[in-house]
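pasting for ref
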Amino acid sequence: MFHVGVALLIVVLVLLQRGKGASAGTGFGGGASGTVFGSRGSASFLSRATAVLATLFFCTSLTLAYLAGQQTAPTSLLEQVIEQDESTTAPPRFETIELPDLPDLPELPGLESEEVELLESAGGENTE
């Protein structure tokens, strides 16, 4: 909340400051002698206050970034439940299953036994 307050104060101070083009209106009766800070005091006070608040904002930004990086605990109940489920359940183990010997495939219709032997020898299979 402090960080947001500093940001809002910076916005207010920047809006209160006069720009460089604001001095052009002094020739038409818009002089700064009736201000609270005097004719020159507001410029130095507001610019210094803005610089101090900008430095403070920078420091709080770095601090918040550091603290956000250090947080490792889950922030919600759902994240806690998910972490508990992951830590309690063991990963599934895959067992090897030995398959029984499968019977040989039937011969293809239309092929003679010599052609089947040539196909089997070309495929690199050992036949007994």
